[in-house]
Every structure is written in C-alpha cells, then in structure tokens.
C-alpha cells in the first residue's frame, strides 16, 4: 500500500468494477463492500500483495486472513471439505459464513495469508458487487475488515477512508453493508464443527442444519486455533459499559428497543440500534452507531441490555471485545 497518496473512490458500476479488479490483479489493495462489512482486498496468491495488506492495516502477521471466492467450486480448489463442511457451504453460501478447512493440495492461497497454518479460511460472500468483483479477479482475494487493526469495522465507504485513506489504492463504494457484523466462522478440521466466531449466520441456523451443537474452541481460548480472536478488538476511543440499566451523567447511550433507561435525559448523545427491538436491524446499525457515539466525545458509551439469541450472540461478542481492557 502506498502512503501519502490518495485513495480513489470507485463507483459501483462496470467501470468501477473493472478498475477494482485490475488493481487487485496488479497486486494493489482495494476495499470493497460485502454483505457483512467492507473488506480490504488483496490477491491472496501474491505474497507481496498480502504483505502490503498486513502493513496497511498494521495487522500482526500471526493473524490469518479469510480468502474470498465467487463460488463453491472455486473454494473447493483451495480447501478440503468434509461432509459437514460441504453441507454448510451448500446451505449458507453465498452468505455470511466462513469455513476453516484443511488446505487442498494445489491450493493457491499463499502461506503468509494463512499465517503458516495448514488450514485455510474460505468465504463466498452474497453481496452482488463482491461476487462480480471476485469473478473478474479470478483468484482468491484475501480480505480482512477494512479498518486499522483493533478498530471498529467499517460498514460504509466513508468509514474505510477515515481509517485507510492514502494507505490503499481504492475503495469500491457500494453503499452500506446490510448485515453489519462479520461472518460466522466455523472450523471443520477434526470431524467436530467448532464455532470460532459468532457472526451473520446465527448459531441456531447452523445447529439446526447439522442436527447437533457446535463445539467451542478446544483448550483455554482462541490461540492457536484462531490466533486472530484477540480479546480487545472493535475498540472505539471511548470506554464501553455493558448491560447498563441506567445512564450516568455525560455518558453516550447505545439503546435497544422501546425502553428509555433512567438518566437518559442527561446523556451526552444517544442512538437506538433498533427502536422496535429487531436484532437484524441492530446488527446492521452496530458499528456505525458505535462510531457516531464515539465522535460525541463522551468518555464512556453505556450499552443497554440486548438479547443474546440469534444475531444477538454476534452483537454481544463485538460489544464484549469493544469493552475489553486494552
Ligand atoms: O465478514 C467477514 O468475515 C469479513 C468480510 C470482509 O468478509 N472479514 C473478516 O476478516 O472479518 P477478519 O480478518 O477481520 O477476520 C478473520 C478471522 C480472524 O479472526 C482469523 O484469526 C480467522 O478469521 N482465521 C483466518 N484463517 C484462519 C484459520 N486458518 N484458522 C483459524 N482462524 C482463522
Ligand atoms: Mg476485523
């Protein structure tokens, strides 16, 4: 990624797509919208492009990347799918699910993108713009969320530019991302599908399809199976106080549902994730609302209680990371 230059904003039309695909094929970094969040794309088969991606995000190289593909056939050239991985792919792709599977013989995703692991994270996104771009590139595209490492993920092109302007070649502007939280990550490595990260496909939908519960990570935490799942992440500048039953003077309030908690009148700023109490709407608004409340200058963002079922598990996960000690 270049520094000091300007990042081009490409429109969501044939010209913009052709330009974005050409830049990616030339080893440059291009942010693009998926249904979950904006990804920062690099040619996953090109070690130099992947190295530039880690540098632009200031991302530790031990944290592997997701390779994005236009369809299941392309994904099966990169990874070895067992029967359950195949059922999950057929049920939920294209869509907000990432599968971690053993690398396939002859796979092209470079070692650096996998952080040296013998497995690879694969995803076929549903956003039409992303699929069109991936078809044009014709190679796996590594794409972490298009933010600086540890910051709030971007759900609009303006968020990408706020973090990465001048550090990447271009951003393909496709408006806002409808799901709003990253993909669910499931590892199918040892015959026992494991939930590595809750996300846009609810756990309940996956467990219903498989007819069994998803296991947790083995051992005492994410490392080394998913080294990127660090505790502090998605961090706004402000502190984050979870399950707030009341708003303290000067706090910014992140609300959910029709309830107005005591003290709300003294809030420095307030936004509601979903006045109707809808979890899909709340997920779509989560990162943009966190950014706006952070910009209010409040020292603390107080977050109202949010149910943890369905998409609520992914929302709770992101909020816990935002609240984690740094
Ligand atoms: O929705 C999404 O998944 C977005 C969009 C852009 O597609 N991408 C995204 O990427 O969230 P990122 O880099 O923020 O998250 C990738 C996660 C990291 O936690 C990483 O550790 C994990 O995937 N991961 C990647 N490869 C892995 C592997 N081989 N084994 C275990 N975890 C892996
Ligand atoms: Mg991320």
UniProtKB/TrEMBL annotation:
Keywords, comma-separated and alphabetical: ATP-binding, Cytoplasm, Nucleotide-binding, Nucleotidyltransferase, Transferase, tRNA processing
EC identifiers of the protein: 2.7.7.87
Domain YrdC-like: 14-201
Main localization of the protein described in the UniProt heading: cytoplasm
UniProt enzyme class: transferase
Function: Required for the formation of a threonylcarbamoyl group on adenosine at position 37 (t(6)A37) in tRNAs that read codons beginning with adenine.
Protein name: Threonylcarbamoyl-AMP synthase
Gene: ywlC
């Amino acid at each position: 990624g270049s520094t000091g230059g300007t990042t081009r904003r490409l429109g969501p039309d044939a010209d913009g797509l052709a330009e974005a695909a050409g830049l990616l094929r030339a080893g440059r970094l291009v942010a693009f919208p998926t249904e979950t969040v904006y990804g920062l794309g690099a040619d996953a088969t090109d070690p130099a492009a992947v190295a530039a991606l880690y540098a632009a995000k200031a991302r530790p190289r031990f944290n592997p990347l997701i390779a994005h593909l236009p369809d299941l056939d392309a994904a099966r050239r990169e990874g070895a799918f067992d029967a359950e991985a195949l059922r999950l792919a057929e049920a939920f792709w294209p869509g907000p699910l990432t599968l971690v599977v053993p690398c396939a013989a002859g796979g092209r995703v470079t070692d650096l993108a996998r952080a040296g692991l013998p497995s690879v994270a694969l995803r076929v996104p549903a956003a039409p713009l992303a699929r069109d771009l991936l078809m044009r590139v014709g190679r796996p595209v590594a794409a972490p969320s298009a933010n600086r490492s540890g910051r709030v993920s971007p759900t609009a092109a303006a968020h990408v530019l706020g973090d990465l302007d001048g550090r990447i070649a271009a951003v393909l502007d496709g408006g806002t991302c409808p799901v709003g939280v990253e993909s669910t990550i499931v590892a199918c490595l040892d015959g026992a599908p494991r939930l590595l990260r809750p996300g846009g496909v609810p756990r309940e939908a996956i467990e219903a399809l498989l007819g069994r519960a998803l296991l947790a990570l083995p051992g005492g935490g994410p490392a080394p199976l998913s080294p990127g799942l660090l505790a502090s992440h998605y961090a706004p500048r402000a502190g984050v106080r979870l399950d707030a039953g009341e708003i303290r003077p000067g706090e910014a309030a992140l609300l959910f549902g029709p309830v107005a908690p005591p003290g709300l009148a003294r809030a420095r700023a307030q936004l509601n994730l979903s006045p109707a109490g809808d979890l899909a709407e709340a997920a779509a608004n989560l990162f943009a609302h966190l950014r706006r409340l952070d910009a209010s200058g409040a020292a603390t963002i107080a977050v109202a209680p949010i149910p943890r079922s369905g998409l609520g598990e992914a929302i709770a996960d992101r909020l816990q990371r935002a609240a984690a000690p740094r």
